[in-house]
Structure formats: C-alpha cells, structure tokens
Specification:
The chain is elongated. With 333 residues, it is of the alpha/beta class. Helix 8 crosses helix 10, helix 11 packs across helix 12 and helix 12 crosses helix 13. It is built from 13 helices and nine strands.
C-alpha cells in the first residue's frame, strides 16, 4: 500500500493529527485473518512470506509484523530486491570492508547487520537472481554473513519477512526460484487478496486514505457522494490500494466543491460504477458502462442516470468525456 516512512505527526497547517498509514484497514474475512495472524506472530521470529498483487499492502503487513513483535525496538530494514543490480546485491546485503573493491572507500555493514536484533524486509524477493538466491539462503541457514573483503563470518540475529507479487510456488516449478529458499522463506505464509475479491473493504479503505491525503495536503476532509462511492465499489482496481490512493488524491486536488467529492472529480479511468439493480452490469471501463446503461434504458438518458445513481447533468458530462454525447436513442442489439 504505502512505503515504510514514519507517519506524519501533524497535518501541515490543519492542526489535526494525521492517521496512521500503517493500519491494515478493512472488514473482510481475509483482512481479519491477517490481523489475527499478526497477533499470533508477536512472539515467534519465524520467517514469513507475504504474497499479493502490487498495491495490496504487503509493506504495511510487514511493518505491522515488526511493530507488534518483540523486535519492535530494534530496526526494521527494508530492501527492494528488484532495484539492486546483480553486481551490487552481495555488498548491499552482506556489507564490505574498505578496499574490498576499487570504489570501496569505506566499510559498509550491509542490510543484514543493520537489521541485527530486528527485522529484515526483503521486498520483491521473487526478482532475485539465482546467484543472489543462493547467497541469501546460505545466510538464512547459517545465521552468518561474510562481508566482501573479509575472511571472518559475522553472526546476525535477524527475522526475515519477504514479500512478492509473484506466485513463488509456480516459479519454483518453472525453475525460476530455488525450492530450498522458497521453503526457507515460506515458514509462515500470508496472502493478501486483491481489492476486487474483497469489495466490502473498498469504502473503509477509501475513507481512511482520504483522511490521510487531506492531512498531508492540509485541507479539511470532504464528504463522499453516493455516486462516487458506487464508482469506487464498481471499479476493478487493477492497481489495488495504490491506485485508489492516486484516484482519491486526484479527486481532492481537482474537486469543484472542496466540502464534497463527487464522481466527476475522479480520474476518467475510474468507471461510474455498477448499475444498482438486481441484474447489475459487471464493472468495466467508463465507456462500456455507459453504453450498457444506455442499452438497458433503451437509450433514455434520464432512465440511464437513475440506474447509474447519478444526476442527469453528471451523466451528460460523462457521456461527453466518453465521446458518447451525440449517441441518439437506440434499442439494445
């Protein structure tokens, strides 16, 4: 969901405490299960693998695991495995001595040693090369690291939490990921489902994100219209919570009425939401949703607006944006 920066203590210019960005918001059974697992993992330091699509909140879960554990007073060190070149991964993780290579002008402890007594978060662990996988496995099994340029092993006491948007079990079957490292990482497994599979979490997450966005910008928190909430609930959210945050920030910044956000304030990529009837249309793109609503209403725009739970003026603006404003009355094919 978010990065691992500390939460903003006070909203700039607002005089209101900003909400914690590290809360796992939602009321679905999946989220309740993850909360329960985090509570049960307060004592054990078992290696944990968090899997889920991009933007689902894997970083937030990792931070909650650390902060609720008996290692909370020690560091949480995050490593983006996808961002470190293969030639630098060993020095970045295990450290190096001064003079170990031509540009080593000073010694570097490495992420494992920086996380000693705390938690090492290996984000995007599925992107590691075969060579890096072997080196990490060796350190996990021995509890030691060998800094580059040193002949002595250094003991480390680290809890490892890894995250990936890949299906690592499938990657093992394909030969892209070491089976022994996978089983070493996946002692405890947590799966965060995408937003499209837990739609009951969409509105609570949206409200929590809106509070944080407004606190960061320094504006009052606006209300949300029913049509906007319907649009949020009907969207597929391929980018999950991260995409929702961007959409809400867009709405806050461009809103015509700063006290109330409406569906027109959302980016054009966010659909108008599902038709609130018994046989509602499946969510899709804005243009597709509008065409389905018009077909269902036999081309009657007033009826289409009622079905989409928005005003006629809102429907007209949406039709114009989707280049459908000149569509005549028609019957469904």
């Amino acid at each position: 969901m978010e990065d691992l920066r500390e939460p903003l203590a006070m909203a700039k210019g607002a005089g209101v405490a900003a909400p914690e960005p590290q809360d796992l918001v939602g009321q679905s059974r999946a989220i309740e299960h993850i909360r329960g697992m985090i509570r049960r993992l307060r004592g054990p330091s078992s290696t944990t693998l968090i899997q889920g699509e991009t933007g689902t909140g894997k970083e937030v879960v990792a931070l909650m695991l650390h902060r609720s554990s008996n290692r909370a007073k020690a560091p949480l060190v995050a490593v983006n495995c996808a961002a470190i070149p293969e030639t630098l991964i060993e020095g970045e993780l295990f450290g190096y001595e001064k003079g170990a290579f031509s540009s080593a002008n000073h010694a570097h402890p490495g992420k494992f040693r920086l996380a000693d007594k705390g938690t090492l978060f290996l984000d995007e662990v599925g992107e590691l090369s075969a060579g890096a996988q072997a080196k990490i496995l060796r350190s996990l099994e021995s509890g030691e690291v060998f800094p580059l340029g040193s002949t002595k092993a250094v003991r480390v006491d680290v809890r490892v939490v890894a995250a990936t948007n890949r299906d690592l079990a499938s990657e093992v079957e394909k030969g892209n990921f070491r089976a022994d490292l996978y089983y070493r990482l996946a002692v405890i497994q947590l799966l965060i489902p995408p937003l499209r599979d837990r739609r009951e979490d969409i509105v609570p997450i949206a409200r929590a994100l809106l509070e944080r966005i407004c606190a960061e910008i320094g504006v009052a928190v606006p209300s949300l219209s029913k049509s906007l909430l319907a649009a949020l609930e009907g969207h597929g959210w391929p980018g999950n919570v991260r995409e929702m945050r961007n959409a809400l920030e867009h709405a806050v910044v461009v809103a015509m009425d700063p006290e109330r956000l409406d569906v027109d304030d959302l980016p054009p990529t966010i659909g108008v939401g599902p038709v609130p009837s018994g046989d509602s249309f499946p969510p899709g793109t804005e243009r597709e949703t509008l065409l389905r609503a018009l077909a269902r209403a036999n081309g009657k725009k007033a009826e289409a607006a009622r079905m989409l739970n928005c005003s006629r003026m809102t429907l007209y603006r949406r039709l114009e944006r989707a280049r459908l404003d000149d569509v005549p009355a028609f019957s469904p094919a």
